[in-house]
Amino acid sequence: MAVDRERIAALVQDLLVAIGEDPERPGLRMTPQRVADAYGEFFSGVGEDAAAPLAHTISVARGPAPETVPSGAVMLRDIRFRSVCEHHLLPFRGHAHIAYLPGEQVVGLGALPKLVEILASRPQVQERLGEQIADTIAASLDARGVLVVLDAMHECVTMRGDQQSDASTVTIAARGDLSEPAARAELIALLGASRE
């Protein structure tokens, strides 16, 4: 189901009137359409199959380089994402760090950011986003374990209430062999490791 941009524009026009603004003044005349276009982008993941980017797998035993069968984790750090909190419809943004212990199949590394993008492009809460990423990887690959760490700043925290402009939220979702804290300690340490 595609985002109904015409309806969003009409609702934004009503919203502007409801806050006491004049939607016909020059600075606001194009705002309803701009918001509709932005929401079309922000919520493009609604109804999209999050597992689709993981459908094309590579056999590590029979693949192009069978001598490179991974014995440890595959980790992709610092995947930038943005989403919209479903509670206040305010944005949150941050970095996703994903690790998995591959079985026989791996995916191209570009599939993981696409997975994050699809799931983040829905009204979300950070905790569920991490769980959905972990569940999709666990269900789509024969991974022995999955770890997803999200670190994000929420505009509902930075702009509202106590306005904690430097506060970030960290969530962890783990599956399989990485469910126990001791089993994922090395990977958590790698997240903080310098790249220099």
Fold topology:
Layout lengths: L4 H14 L12 H12 L14 E3 L14 E12 L5 E11 L3 E3 L3 H10 L2 E2 L1 H15 L4 E10 H4 L10 E8 L4 H12 L4
Parallel strand pairs: 2-5
Antiparallel strand pairs: 1-4, 2-3, 3-6, 6-7
Helix pairs in contact: 1-2, 3-4
Please provide a written account of the structure.
The protein has helices at residues 5-18, 31-42, 111-120, 126-140, 155-158, 181-192; strands at residues 57-59, 74-85, 91-101, 105-107, 123-124, 145-154, 169-176. The model has no long low-confidence stretch (mean pLDDT 91). The protein has six helices and seven strands, in the order H-H-E-E-E-E-H-E-H-E-H-E-H. Helix 1 crosses helix 2 (31-42) and helix 3 packs across helix 4 (126-140). With 196 residues, it is of the alpha+beta class. Strand 2 (74-85) and strand 3 form a beta hairpin. The chain has two domains: 5-41, GTP cyclohydrolase I, N-terminal domain (GTP Cyclohydrolase I, Chain A, domain 1, Orthogonal Bundle); 53-192, GTP cyclohydrolase I, C-terminal domain/NADPH-dependent 7-cyano-7-deazaguanine reductase, N-terminal domain (GTP Cyclohydrolase I, domain 2, 2-Layer Sandwich), CATH 3.30.1130.10. It has a five-stranded mixed sheet, sandwiched between helices.
